[in-house]
Structure formats: C-alpha cells, structure tokens
Amino acid sequence: MKILAIESSCDETAAAVVEDGRQVLSSVVASQVEEHKLYGGVVPEIASRRHAEAIVPVVSQALSDASVTLRDIEAIAVTYAPGLIGALLVGVNFAKGLSLSTGIPLVPTHHLRSHIASNYISNPDLKPPFLCLIVSGGHSHIVMVEDYTKMKIIGRTRDDAAGEAFDKAARTMGMPYPGGIALDKVAEDGDAHAFRLPRPVVHDAPYDFSFSGLKTAVINLIHNAAQKGTELNKADVCASFRYAVVDCLSTNFLKAAQDLGVSKLVIAGGVSANRLLRRTLADECQRRGYQLFMPDVSLCGDNAAMVGSQGYYEFCGGNIAGTDLNAFATMPIDALSF
Ligand code: KG4
Ligand code: ZN
To answer: 270: exposed, middle or buried (C-beta count within 10 Å: 0-12, 13-18, 19+)?
Structure first.
C-alpha cells in the first residue's frame, strides 16, 4: 500500500511516498532554516508563508521521484499536531483538498509518533513493544510504545525541551540557529569535566526532566565570564553542557527501562542525532544486555518519510479523518483526537 505523506509542523516543508510503512520510495524536504537563522529562531508567520509557497512543488517532486501518480496512492497521511498552528494548517488544508478532489482517504498523523516511526524505516525488524526516548526541539518524553498506535507517557519535561536547551545555550555562545547541531560538533573537541553543571531532578517524578535550571546555569557561566573579561574555552563549555543534558536524558531513560523491565530501547527526534547521546546509550545498553534502536541521522530531523511510516499504521488502526479535520498546536501522544 502506497501512502503520500505531508509534513509542515515547523520549518521544513516535506513530502514522501512510503510503501507498507517501511519502504521509502521518495522523500523531499525543503528547509527554511537559512531564512530563520537571520532571526535566531523560527518566525511562525514566515514559516507559514514559505510552506504555502513550497507545498505544491514539494508534493509534485515526491510523486515524480517515486515514479507514481495520485492514482497509485491509497492514503494521504498528514501531520495535524503538534506544532506551529499556522504551519500545520498549510499541510492539513492541502491534504484535505487533495483528499476531497481524489477521494483518497485522509490519515491524521501525530508528529511525535512519526518521529518514533523513523525507526521502523531505519530498523526493518523493529516492532513494538519498546520504550522510546523522544527528544526534539519542542518535546522530551519517555514513552512506552505498547503497539504502533497505543502509547503511554512515562516521563516528560516539566519546562524546556532538550533541543530548546541546546539551542538557547548555543545561541548564547553566538552559534547560528538551530544551535544544537553546531554545539554537538564543537563539543567533540572539549573536556566534558571542565565545568560542573547541575543535573536537575524532579522531586517524586524520577522519569521527568527539567532543563531550564541547567540552561540558566550555562548562560550565567558565560555571562559572568564576559562581565569579568575572562576567556572561556568554548569547546569545554559545549562539552560540559552536552554531558549534563545527556546525563539527565540517559539516567532517567535507563532507570525507566530497568523499573519497567523493558530491554528494547529506541530513541527518536532531532536530538537523537546527538553524538554523545548515541554513544552513551550504545555503551550502556551493551553493558546491560539491552537492545538499542536508533534512526539513521538523516531521519532524525523533520521529514515526511516518517509520517508515511506512522500514517500506514494509523490507517491500519482505522484512524481516518473527514474533511473537517483541523490542526492542533498541542495534542498528547497517547490520547489522540481529531
Ligand atoms: O525533531 P526536530 O527536527 O524538530 C522538532 O520537532 O522540534 O528537532 C529539532 C531540534 C533542534 O532543537 C536542534 O537543535 C536539535 O533538534 N538537534 C540537536 C542535534 N541535531 C538536531 N541537538 C543536539 N545535538 C544534535 N546533533
Ligand atoms: Zn520534529
């Protein structure tokens, strides 16, 4: 079964054709990142306008790259939540128009569930149940994936997402948006033990995260040094900060796995491209005899191939929307409504 997938939740306009949830026939991503860099972050109004310009050529390209026409497509999967509302509405309205004019069923797909599904593409043998750490620009969750469309939130961030903390720390050091990628690279040459940074914990919620105190600590470190005219080694600051974030993520994730008795672990989302997170979890999982699955780095960021994969499982689970489908800025991963 071939699915046309559409993604426009943030600053990437993407379309893909995916067969039976696992085989990517085409994947096109038009990134707006260069324009948002000028402002140090995503400007929602600009994002919506760029999606409106890009959506038709991106979808046409995805169909032609896959050597298919709409006649070969059996469902249209579209990201409908969560994300920037104006950005989501571009993809949702385009998909609705296409569904209305062709009669092809419309499958509303949750963005974070799609991030998880990037693993079904990279790891063809992976099947639920498993425990997943989802770390993106807007979310940090530990989720028990009981089945393809049945999930339970085990832990979540109480304030900033991990990606957001990476981006803010990087911006304070003058790195361009999205700074998490640049910070990760610079950190490779630094000493992770050069600066002691806090590991915030949430009282009585061992699987929850809190990154705002850690973010403030690194920003204060940088500002205090600037006020005193002291030169800080940038690579050491990046490495110490990255180590602190990864320590919090991996400690809670591994504790949840141990407490729940789950030995199949998965990571997903933009921050799952982080080199230290991948190395740390690979080492820890090997030591404990756990299986660890990760998406290819090329599939960690926003794309529509992952939407086509999750869309297939949503379709199989009967999640089909009418043309009154709306977009939602927020939506829990474990209790969808549309
Ligand atoms: O999943 P994603 O592409 O978009 C959202 O759904 O939010 O995640 C983007 C986030 C950004 O904050 C970006 O800085 C972060 O993922 N990111 C990284 C790395 N690559 C992307 N953070 C740390 N290390 C990386 N290598
Ligand atoms: Zn994302």
So the answer is: buried
